[in-house]
Write a structure and sequence with these properties.
The chain is an alpha/beta fold. The protein is 29% helix and 24% strand. The strands form 3 sheets. Strands 1, 2, 3, 4, 5, 16, 17, 18 and 19 form a 9-stranded mixed beta sheet that branches. The protein has an 8-stranded parallel beta sheet with strand order 6-9-10-11-12-13-14-15. A two-stranded antiparallel ribbon has the order 7-8. One of its GO terms (molecular function) is metal ion binding.
Length: 462
């Protein structure tokens, strides 16, 4: 069945015009004026609304064992939440522990999504050790359509790699032409600072950020840049939170390192005072790297507007406040790190970015969709509106007024870090490959119709 979207204001990373879009057999079949649909097919009037390419979240955790517990969402709840918020493609971090076999882990992560996810999905393959068997297994995973790796420079003895493993991963990535995404924090500095703070009786969630200050992240970025420069590998720094970290990456870019920067929506909307709330409420806002002071938030918005920061993701990692965050009461190092935000990223970025004049519509689409598609081998199938592209479309109503609340969310966590926040605009129609999945904030599509996206080698366009 075809779908005709009439009279919408089509906005991509580069274009802005009013036209009709005909979706047929999963693709964008025609773009023009006064188009007609075959008899019996749906026609949606998008007059006065934007039509954006489906948004891509390049950094989510859905199935994840971490800090003695599991992330709360599964692909059923997470994909519905993503779609209600306008995100039509997820790139999940496949993160086995150091003790797990990479191929077995990849098959496990795939099994958690296949036939369950209602939006399209793919993965970054976590490299959490590099022994004599790792290279052959990673080559097999790349052959299966995964063209990005993930390394952690933190979480020693669980996810973290040592310098030999980091070098070998980057060297292989350079040979294969894949991107290495990286969590950049110096694990030794973190461990030492944590122990000092706990010894002083500083045990509450408000001490999480002081245990991982901006210098810890900036040093991690600098460390990664040295290895990327030595190997020639392309790298993507995830969840960048502060000015010194960005400056370390930009210095390397000036030397010729192929580096792209991501930030995440919590850093653009929340600040460190949220994690300093009393009665353990601050635990709701514990993530790593931590949420920073307002000065860094302002710097991030400017870096996003200029394109220095290329993408806005979520680092969605949901844990219940009541049963899971409580594990760290009396010891902040045991609070599961992560926030739920997969459902609200697009609306928050539009409301507090576009509507507040911090970014324009083109940068909005570019940062939330197009740049991720280009970097991770999905463009032009995803990330734009063009003939032959997948018909992943978001008709967006800029007149909508509402508030975020846990009571109405699709995410499985028992709280929302943006509870009560105003939003000005939301998707009125969301399609995945031409099929309507969401209408006026309600999921009404086919559960489990999401497809695994085997990817091509990524672009180096920034």
């Amino acid at each position: 069945m075809a779908l005709l979207i009439k009279n919408g204001r089509i906005v991509t990373a580069t274009d802005d015009y009013v036209a009709d879009i005909l979706c047929d057999e999963g693709k964008i079949a025609a773009i023009g004026h006064d188009l007609t649909a075959p008899a019996g097919d749906e026609v949606f009037d998008a007059t006065g609304q934007f039509v954006f390419p489906g948004f891509i979240d390049p950094h989510v955790h859905i199935y994840m064992e971490f800090m003695g517990t599991f992330a709360k969402d599964d692909y059923d709840s997470a994909s519905r939440a993503a779609l209600v918020g306008g995100t039509t493609t997820l790139i999940e971090m496949c993160c086995p522990s150091r003790q797990e076999d990479p191929l077995e882990a990849f098959d496990l992560w795939m099994s958690k999504a296949e036939g369950i996810s209602s939006c399209d999905y793919t993965f970054h393959m976590g490299v959490t050790r590099f022994d004599d068997t790792t290279e052959a297994k990673l080559r097999t995973i790349v052959d299966r359509g995964i063209t990005s790796f993930k390394v952690f420079l933190a979480y020693k003895d669980f996810f973290g790699v040592n310098d030999t493993e980091l070098f070998r991963t980057l060297k292989l990535a350079k040979e294969l032409g894949v991107v290495v995404t990286a969590h950049c924090e110096n694990e030794t500095l973190i461990a030492e600072r944590q122990q000092l703070l706990l010894a002083e009786g500083k045990t509450g969630p408000e001490w999480h950020e002081p245990s991982r200050p901006v210098q810890v992240e900036a040093e991690g970025v600098h460390h990664l840049m040295s290895f990327a420069e030595a190997t020639g590998a392309s790298v993507y720094v995830v969840h960048t939170s502060n000015q010194p970290a960005i400056e370390a990456a930009m210095a390397a870019r000036a030397r010729g390192v192929d580096v792209m920067l991501e930030t995440v929506i919590p850093y653009l909307t929340l600040d460190n005072t949220y994690a300093e709330q009393g009665d353990f409420e601050g635990a709701k806002f514990v993530m790593s790297p931590p949420i920073r002071s307002r000065e860094h938030q302002d710097y991030l918005w400017n870096a996003l507007a200029s394109g220095v920061v290329s993408t806005v993701a979520t680092d969605h990692a949901p844990f219940d406040f009541s049963a899971q965050k409580e594990m760290g009461r009396g010891d902040f190092t045991k609070i599961p790190n992560g926030l739920p935000s997969i459902e609200d990223r697009v609306n928050l970025l539009y409301t507090y970015g576009v509507k507040r004049g911090r970014i324009d519509l083109h940068r909005f689409v570019d940062a939330a969709s197009t740049q991720a598609a280009k970097r991770f081998g999905l463009f032009p199938r995803k990330g734009t509106i063009a003939l032959g592209a997948d018909a992943d479309l978001v008709v967006y109503d800029p007149t909508y007024q509402g508030h975020i609340t846990v009571a109405n969310q699709q995410m499985a966590a028992d709280y929302n870090p943006h509870e009560g926040w105003e939003i000005e605009g939301r998707p009125s129609l969301v399609t995945v490959r031409g099929e309507v999945q969401v209408r006026d904030g309600v999921f009404e599509g086919e559960a489990g119709r999401g497809e695994f996206l085997a990817r091509t080698l990524p672009s180096t366009i920034h």
